[in-house]
Every structure is written in structure tokens, then in C-alpha cells.
Design brief:
Elements (H helix, E strand, L loop, with lengths): L6 H8 L6 H16 L12 E8 L5 E8 L3 E5 L6 H11 L8 E5 L3 E6 L8 E5 L6 H12 L10 H21 L4 H19 L7 H8 L4 H17 L1 E3 L2 E3 L17 H11 L8 H12 L14 H36 L2 H23 L3 E3 L6 H23 L14 E5 L2 H21 L16 E3 L5 E2 L5 E2 L8 E4 L9 H5 L1 H10 L11 H14 L4 E7 L5 H13 L1 E13 L2 E11 L6 E3 L2 E3 L25 E3 L8 E2 L1 H8 L14 E5 L1 H5 L6 E3 L7 H5 L2 H10 L1 H4 L5 H5 L9 H8 L3 E6 L8 E4 L3 E2 L3 E4 L4 H7 L2 H10 L1 E3 L2 E3 L2 H5 L16 H21 L6 H5 L3 H7 L2 H18 L7 H19 L1 H4 L11
């Protein structure tokens, strides 16, 4: 540890120092370490405190944080009289790459500014001048930065600030109503005021200008009104307010300089409200709270439940974001592969790969910027804001990856213009636009992006003020209103029971919608069902891909359910929360959330759990949590070998070792150079790979006698294995980390085994020779008969494995415990009647399937290039008629073995399998079976 320095010595040394940043910043930081008794970056040995930490900028490109301490802070220095606000913006761009530390610190030699960066709290700033470091309080603050950053976590949450702001504006609205102002005029004026408060705190208005006006005119209400009119006028077009330059805001919110008069009571409320941190308000609840605060009919709901961001995400994530994240996973993998190829290339090839990489990422960013989201009952814009933030966050991942890969050309292009809304209420319609803009501006500021272009508030003409379910043509005839075109529909349509329609909406309106939707929406159905039906219709027409809507849980019942049956008949419910607690108009209710499409989504999730299907009553009748592991299936499935290093050999490397002379023990290298297969050899084509394998316990001295293989792994494996955290892996570095002795013993009894890839697009089963070493991403079944492979490759087992397994991205994952050990074969394994003709039929069908596949994979007289295009994955992607027929014959033979009809639906097959599982489990006893756990590690 470096010698300490006293506060007096520190201040004396650095007072008046005007040297430039680069020449003194590290020396200054080292002195700070000495001042608080902390190790310096040079003394740190575990890489958790470093100078010049490499960090990707969210705006693109590679940057360097001046100092970084893991889990504590990012620290950026600037020279004398430099703008520390710019330094903070720079740190904001780095923070994701710096693992989002709780503190962001910016500094010059004379001043240290500490910004908190904690999730869901109001951001706070603490400034330490040089002289403050000679005080006990200042020194304690600095020690917290180095040693206890969470002691600086603000106690005030963003939700609390938003709720407090809404409550204050409710009081202001009450005052204006008492003055006789009209409700819409009050709402428009107060929305302007709150936006000014927000703009001031995020730096879009000159520093403190709105607060200065309030303080200067605190006891002169007419002067306040005059000043605010002048400020609104400047914001309408841009210009000057006194000596302060004002940006052009426009956007309809500041179309004129109208301001309502306030008295001293109103100004006192404004003075209190100006003390809040308006940059921290939460847009996802902001609109709802302000709508309640400005509407007397909803004032009683101010303290009631609001739709939080987490609630909204239950729809936005699976309906809007899931397909985009799947696509991004593919693009990201392609981008990283291109970058690796680029980095290994030079000259023109490198330039070509660089351009290809840029085009790939730009194309996906462009794809995001063209996504259109419609909320056909948008209220005050909460769903639209959350959707926008998720799109921006995903685009930031694209930008960050581009920066990580050395690209510098990307900036955010996702924007509010991608959001479409329909709202009939005038106040909510205006609030929705402001909510979206506040959220968009907040995101840009929080993520350190450049200034927004003017006008700041461009009109959001995509949010329409209209009725979403009833319109009239030029003759006055009721017609369905045209909805804006979008890829995705999300929202929370109005909850109103069918029996209350006439009371709340009037006979004329109700008769019109009854006639317009006759035959499609039952007359007894709740109002929300009209939004479901319209969404279903536009999905069927192909103008919309997916929809996710809220309803009360009565959507599952009686007449309402007919709407969901129509959805399932021509599309599919792929996501649902059937029954969740909620608060509506101050009363406790239960709601359902439903996501649906045209049938394209392969996965079904009900109440957060994967299911085979979702019925119109938002249930999945088969309760697979009851399934039990069957002892009759135990001891038949094994995970493959985990090598734990570069033991694998290319065909050329293996040939050199295999053709070498005998070793000093008189044995050939083929003893320890074995064929090796992994998932690629099954889903694509066999690559002829080998692996150096010294078995499960060969002593090092004995292994060393196999000179060339031992030398290979001593060079390629040993250095990395010696770094392994596990002692056994370090000490037995020449042995695979998990050689699976039980697997090897089981395979040794057979000439061939069945294998499947654990994670793959298609559930494929193939034969592997028993003399190969299977990789750990394979499951191996210790059976060598065609009947066994046939049952595994049947529709029955595939449906079961898909239902009982999980997914990785969009690829199903197979589990030994849940997919295989629970699966009821036609007869318990080992108890098959071998002379039964049904066994023979399955065996013959499996033989034909494998033979036809092999013939397709390896046709005679084709080029090597053509052979490379023939893989099992591509074959099953195409699924030609002959392959489909081969599987149908196999499936029919398996159905015969079960004694089932050939035309069972997927749901019926799963129901019968579950019943058979429970019947077998009951016979073996619950204690022996053991319940299937949700997360079961696959072990040999």
C-alpha cells in the first residue's frame, strides 16, 4: 500500500494546479487513494480497479473510462474549466460496458461530482470542492465512494416522486376549477407547466429558468402569468427569453402563449412542486396519475393501483419483443462470426467483411426503426411508452455490439413516430403524446446520447383522437373505423360488462355496435371483446402479425369466450395470464392477459409456464406438473463426455497421430485417439473428428508413454487446465473433466447407440457407433434396437419432449429427467414382447426412415460442395413428401403399439401419454418415482 497523505497535504498540493487532464489525472487519483487509505490501480492485482478501462460507447465507437472500480464507480476526468456535464454524458455512454456501476463520478483537479446510478431511484448528485476534503463530512463522502457506494443509494423511489408530483398537480387543478376555468383548458395548461418542469430538470430549458420565474414572482401572481406567457411564446418557435436562448419545442403543446391566471396559493403549490426532481418521473405511470389528478371524477383513484411497467411488460415482452429478440440473437451470432473473420483477414477481404458487418447491424437497426406498434385504446400512453423503451433498449444493444466490434457509425433511429394510438378522450389523447415524448427524451438523456434535434416536440399525428370500434361513412351509416397499420397491437381496452353497456353508453350507440358486429360479437359480451375481435380480424387480414390485450377475467367465460374461440379457430393464443389481481376504479378485480397471432408462434405460455396449447377458457387441460419419473426408464440415458480443453483433433491431426510408429509400450496411438462426435456431426454432417482420450483414470506416467498424443494435450490443454478452479481438474489435466464412466460402460456392451442433440431446432435421433466418444451436448441411449429408435423418433415422443422440455432461444432443449425418464413407452423398456408384430412394424418403419435419410444425405456421384448442403437440419427444414410419409408410417406403427387410433390430435396424444405415465407411476409407487422437478440437472 502506498504511503498515506493527509487532507491538508492533499489540498495544499492540488490547490491552484492548472495542468492539463492527461498529465495529472492519474497522479491526482493515486493521491485520492492515499487520502482515503485505498489501494491504487497499480497495487490492485485482481483487475477490479484499473486506469483506462476499455468501454464501448453507446453512441458508437470504443472509449476509455479514466478509472473504473468494479461494483463501485466509473470515473472520468476533465481538464481545468472543462464542462463536467459533458464528462458525465461520456460516462453514461460507457456505463453498460462498465457493468452499470452504482456511482458515476466526474472530476477535474478542483471538483469531484458524484452521480448516483441506482436502479429505480431518483438520481442524486453530490459535489465535493477541494476544500471539502479537509472536512470530516467531505472525507466520509469520498470514503463511501471508494468503500461503501451503496451507502449513497437514494431512499426516494421514482414511483414516489411521480406520485408526489401528481398529488401536487391535483391540488393545482382544484384551484383552477374553483376559479371557473374549463376542464380541458386546465388540463392543457397544467400539462404545459409540468413539461416545463421536466424540460428544466433534463437541461432542455436553460438551467433553473422555470424555478427562477416562480421565485421571482412568488408574491406577484400577474407577473408570473406574464412571464410564463413570454416563455411559452419563446418555446413555440424558439428564440430568447430575456438573455436566455430557448429551444424550439413546438409540437402542438406550445402552439400559442395562453396561460391561465394563478393566485398566491397556486404559486405556493408550484414552488413546492418545482423542488421535485422532474427528470426522474416514471412515464409508465405518469399519464395515469396525471389523468386522475386532472379529472375530478378520478381524484379518488389517486392512491389506487395503477398499471405499472412490470404489469405492462407481461404483454409487451412476449407480444412485441420476443420475435425481435429471437431475430437479434441470430443477427448477433452472425455479427460476431463476421467480426472474427474480419479480424483474421487483411486488405480488401477485411474491408469487405467490415462492410458486410456494418450492413448486417444497420439492417437490423433499420428493422427496429420500422416496427409499428398500435394501442387502439391508448389512454395516457403507458403501453406505448413501455414499447418504445423496449425498442430503444434493444437498439442500444445493437449499437453497443457495433461499438464492441469496432464500428463507429451508428446512432439511435427508433423514435416516437413508430407508435400509433387511438384514444377518444381529449385529455388522455394529449397526455399520451406528452408521456411518449417525456419517455423518449428521458431515455436519450439517461443513455448519454447527443442533443435532440429541433423542434423538440414534433407533432405525433400517429396518435388519433377517435372512436376505435364505431365510425360513420359519408351517408351516416355505422362502419368499422380504419385502424392504423402496424405489426403489433398491444393495450388495455376499456373494461365494461355487457350488462352495463346501455347504462353507460346509451341505447343508440349500443344498437349501432350490435348491428355492426352482428354475428361476430355476442350482444351479451363485454365491451373489451370488440377490441379483441377487431384485432383478430386485422390479424386474419394479414395487416397485423400479433396482438396482446388486457381484459377482466370474465373474457374466459360464457359469451365472452366465443371471441377467444374465434381467435383459436383461425389463429392461436400463444400467451395468457388467466387470472391476475388488479384494481380498477378503486375496486379489486381479476384480469386476464391474452397474446394471439395467426398461428405462427410455436411456443405457448400460460401463467408463465410453457404448455402444449392454450384453450379458449385460458387453461391447458393437461397438468404436466403431475408427471412422474418412471423407474423403468432409468439407466438408459447418459450425457456425453465433457472434455474440458482442446482434446479434439481434426482429421488431418488425427491421421498424423494414428499413422505414427508404435509407442515404447508397444501400443498404437489408436488406443487413445478415438473418433469423436458432437451435435454438428448429427445435425449437419459427420466431420471425421477425433479426440485424445486417456479414459477415466489412466495414470499420467502411463498416458505419457503415448508420446505424440500426450505432447499434443500437454501443449494445448495443460496451460488452461492448470488455471481451473477445481483441484481435480487441475491435478488430472490429461483426463477429460467429466469422462462419464457409466456411459462408457453402457456403450461398451453394444455395437451402436442412439444419440440426440440436447439443444436443436428439430428433435432428431441418429445412430452412433459405440467406439466413438460422444460430446456432452449429446444424450446417448444405451439401446441398439430399431424399435427403440423408432419410438423415440415418433410423433408421440416428440410431442412429449417438446412439452416437457425447455427452449434455448427458439430451439427446443431435451432433458433426461423431464423428457425421457417420464416418457411412457408402449411397453416398459426391457419388457417388450419381442415376437409381437407391432414391435416388428416399428422396427421396420424406423429402418426405412434411417435408410432413406442416409440415402438422401449421401447420394452417389455428387460433388463435395453439394454434399455439404445436405444436412439433417436442412432435410427436416424442407421435410419433403417422402420424409413426411416415412414419419407417418412410423407414427402409425407406434400408435398401433399403444393401441391408439391414427388420427389423434396432438392434445389427445399428450393426454393419453400423461394418463399412461400416471398409471405406470402409481404401480411403481410415488416414493420410487419421485416428482419431476422444474429445473433438473442432467447427470449420467
Amino acid at each position: 500500500m502506498a504511503p498515506s497523505i493527509t487532507p491538508h497535504e492533499f489540498v495544499a498540493k492540488w490547490s491552484g494546479d492548472t495542468r492539463k487532464e492527461r498529465s495529472v489525472s492519474q497522479e491526482h487519483f493515486i493521491d485520492l487513494c492515499r487520502l482515503v487509505g485505498h489501494e491504487t490501480p497499480g497495487e490492485n492485482r485482481d483487475g477490479t480497479l484499473v486506469f483506462e478501462a476499455g468501454a464501448a460507447k453507446s453512441a458508437g465507437g470504443q472509449g476509455w473510462a479514466d478509472v473504473w472500480k468494479k461494483g463501485h464507480f466509473g470515473w472520468e476526468y476533465k481538464g481545468p474549466r472543462a464542462d463536467l456535464g459533458k464528462a458525465f454524458q461520456q460516462l453514461q455512454q460507457y456505463r453498460d460496458s462498465l457493468q452499470n456501476p452504482p456511482l458515476l463520478v466526474v472530476s477535474d483537479i478542483q471538483t469531484i461530482v458524484i452521480h448516483t446510478n441506482f436502479v429505480n431511484t431518483v438520481k442524486q448528485t453530490q459535489t465535493l470542492a477541494l476544500a471539502d476534503l479537509e472536512t470530516l463530512e467531505g472525507l466520509q463522502m469520498l470514503r463511501k465512494v471508494f468503500f461503501h457506494p451503496y451507502a449513497l443509494e437514494p431512499t426516494l423511489t421514482i414511483q414516489q416522486v411521480t406520485e408526489a408530483a401528481a398529488a401536487e398537480f391535483a391540488r393545482l387543478a382544484d384551484l383552477l376549477r374553483r376559479y371557473g376555468e374549463q376542464p380541458q383548458a386546465i388540463a392543457h395548461y397544467l400539462i404545459r407547466l409540468l413539461f416545463c418542469l421536466f424540460a428544466e430538470d433534463v437541461g432542455l430549458l436553460p438551467d433553473g429558468i422555470f424555478t427562477r420565474i416562480i421565485h421571482a414572482t412568488r408574491h406577484k401572481a400577474p407577473a408570473f402569468t406574464a412571464q410564463i406567457k413570454a416563455l411559452f411564446g419563446a418555446m413555440a418557435t424558439g428564440g430568447y427569453f430575456g438573455t436566455d436562448e430557448i429551444k424550439n419545442f413546438n409540437g402542438g403543446l406550445f402552439e400559442d402563449d395562453t396561460a391561465l391566471p394563478l393566485d398566491s396559493d397556486g404559486l405556493h403549490i408550484l414552488e413546492r412542486v418545482s423542488a421535485l426532481d422532474w427528470s426522474a418521473i416514471e412515464p409508465s405511470i405518469f399519464g395515469t396519475l396525471f389523468e386522475r389528478s386532472l379529472d375530478p371524477a378520478k381524484r379518488s383513484q389517486l392512491g389506487a393501483h395503477y398499471t405499472s411497467r412490470d404489469d405492462i411488460m407481461l404483454i409487451v415482452e412476449p407480444v412485441l419483443m420476443l420475435p425481435l429478440r429471437r431475430r437479434w440473437a441470430e443477427v448477433e451470432a452472425m455479427a460476431r462470426e463476421l467480426a472474427a473473420q474480419r479480424d483474421a483477414a487483411s486488405g480488401a477481404k477485411r474491408n469487405r467483411l467490415e462492410n458486410e458487418l456494418i450492413r448486417l447491424l444497420m439492417a437490423f437497426a433499420d428493422e427496429l426503426s420500422r416496427v409499428r406498434v398500435l394501442d387502439p385504446a391508448c389512454g395516457s400512453g403507458n403501453f406505448l411508452y413501455v414499447a418504445l423503451k423496449q425498442l430503444l433498449d434493444l437498439e442500444k444493444q445493437v449499437i453497443n455490439l457495433g461499438a464492441d466490434l469496432g464500428l463507429t457509425r451508428m446512432l439511435p433511429s427508433v423514435g416516437p413516430e413508430q407508435l400509433y394510438g387511438i384514444e377518444i378522450n381529449e385529455l388522455a389523447h394529449e397526455l399520451a403524446q406528452v408521456t411518449v415524448w417525456i419517455g423518449y427524451i428521458q431515455w436519450h438523456k439517461d443513455n448519454g446520447f447527443a442533443e435532440l434535434k429541433e423542434p423538440i416536440l414534433q407533432p405525433l399525428e400517429t396518435i388519433k383522437r377517435m372512436d376505435a370500434i364505431l365510425a360513420f361513412d359519408e351517408t351516416g351509416k355505422p362502419v368499422e373505423p380504419e385502424w392504423p397499420e402496424a405489426e403489433v397491437i398491444i393495450g388495455n381496452p376499456p373494461f365494461l360488462g355487457g350488462k352495463r353497456l346501455r347504462t353507460e353508453m346509451g341505447d343508440t350507440y349500443v344498437d349501432q355496435i350490435f348491428a355492426l358486429y352482428d354475428g361476430r360479437v355476442p350482444r351479451e359480451a363485454d365491451l373489451v371483446t370488440y377490441w379483441f375481435e377487431r384485432s383478430r380480424a386485422v390479424i386474419t387480414q394479414g395487416t397485423v402479425k400479433r396482438a396482446g390485450l388486457l381484459a377482466t377475467n370474465s373474457i374466459r367465460q360464457q359469451q365472452n369466450r366465443l371471441i377467444l374461440e374465434r381467435i383459436n379457430a383461425k389463429g392461436g393464443i400463444f400467451m395468457a395470464w388467466s387470472d391476475r389481481p388488479w384494481v380498477l376504479d378503486g375496486a379489486a378485480v381479476r384480469v386476464s392477459m391474452v397474446g394471439f397471432d395467426g398461428g405462427e408462434e410455436p411456443d405457448r405460455v400460460l401463467n408463465g409456464t410453457a404448455v402444449a396449447s392454450i384453450n379458449a377458457d385460458l387453461t391447458s387441460n393437461l397438468n404436466f406438473t403431475l408427471a412422474r419419473r418412471l423407474t423403468e426408464n432409468s439407466g438408459l440415458i447418459f450425457m456425453g463426455d465433457t472434455k474440458g480443453g482442446s482434446f479434439d483433433l481434426t482429421p488431418d491431426q488425427a491421421e498424423q497421430l494414428l499413422s505414427a510408429p508404435l509407442n515404447p509400450n508397444g501400443r498404437p496411438n489408436s488406443d487413445v485417439v478415438r473418433p469423436w462426435v458432437n451435435g454438428l456431426d448429427i445435425t449437419r454432417r459427420p466431420r471425421g473428428m477425433f479426440i485424445v482420450d486417456f479414459g477415466v483414470n489412466m495414470p499420467e506416467a502411463e498416458a505419457a508413454i503415448y508420446e505424440l498424443p500426450f505432447a499434443h494435450i500437454e501443449r494445448e490443454v495443460k496451460p488452461e487446465r492448470l488455471k481451473n478452479n477445481r483441484v481435480a481438474y487441475r491435478e488430472r489435466w490429461w483426463i477429460h473433466v467429466e469422462p462419464r464412466p457409466a456411459l462408457r460402460k453402457a456403450m461398451a456392451r453394444l455395437s451402436r447407440c442412439v444419440a440426440t442433440v440436447i439443444v436443436a431446432k428439430h428433435r432428431l435421433f441418429a445412430w452412433i457407433s459405440s467406439d466413438v466418444i460422444p460430446d456432452h451436448r449429446l444424450f446417448v441411449f444405451s439401446r441398439d434396437d430399431d424399435y427403440f429408435l423408432g419410438v423415440l423418433h415418433s410423433r408421440s415422443h416428440e410431442l412429449w419432449s417438446l412439452r416437457m422440455g425447455s427452449t434455448l432461444e427458439d430451439r427446443p432443449s431435451y432433458s433426461s429427467a423431464t423428457c425421457f425418464e417420464t416418457f411412457p413407452f408402449p411397453w416398459p423398456p426391457g419388457q417388450e414382447p419381442l415376437d409381437d408384430p407391432r414391435i416388428t412394424a416399428i422396427s421396420e418403419a424406423a429402418q426405412r426412415l434411417v435408410a432413406q435419410r442416409d440415402a438422401w444425405l449421401n447420394p452417389p456421384d455428387v460433388t463435395e460442395a453439394e454434399l455439404k448442403q445436405r444436412t439433417l437440419t436442412k432435410l427436416y427444414n424442407q421435410r419433403p413428401p417422402w420424409l413426411d410419409q416415412a414419419h407417418k408410417e412410423l407414427d402409425q406403427a407406434v400408435c398401433d403399439a399403444y393401441g391408439w387410433p391414427h388420427d389423434l390430435s396432438d392434445e389427445a396424444i399428450l393426454a393419453r401419454l400423461l394418463a399412461l405415465n400416471l398409471e405406470r407411476a402409481a404401480k411403481q409407487g410415488d416414493a420410487a418415482a419421485g416428482a419431476v422437478e422444474t429445473h433438473t440437472d442432467d447427470k449420467e
